Amino acid sequence: YNQERIRLKLKGLSPVKYREQAQAAA
């Protein structure tokens, strides 16, 4: 997946939410 999009999402989401999104995308 695109790391750049993950960075943008990380800015908009808290670390916990970011991890949830990362696992969902994996």
Structural account:
The protein is mainly α and 26 residues long. The protein has one domain (1-26). The protein is built from 2 helices and no strands. The longest helix has 11 residues, at 15-25. It is flat.
Topology overview:
Blueprint: H1 3-12, H2 15-25
Can you give keywords for this protein?
flat, 26 residues, mainly alpha, single chain, 0% strand
**Whole-number average pLDDT?**
69
Distance between the termini: 9 Å
User: Could you say which overall geometry the principal axes of the C-alpha atoms support?
Assistant: flat
The total tally of domains equals: 1
Structural class: mainly alpha
Helices, by number, come to 2
Radius of gyration, in Å, reads: 8 Å
Order of helices and strands: HH
Number of DSSP E strands: 0
Strand content: under 5%
- The parts where pLDDT drops under 50 for at least 5 residues are none
The main pleated sheet reads as: none
User: Helix fraction?
Assistant: over 70%
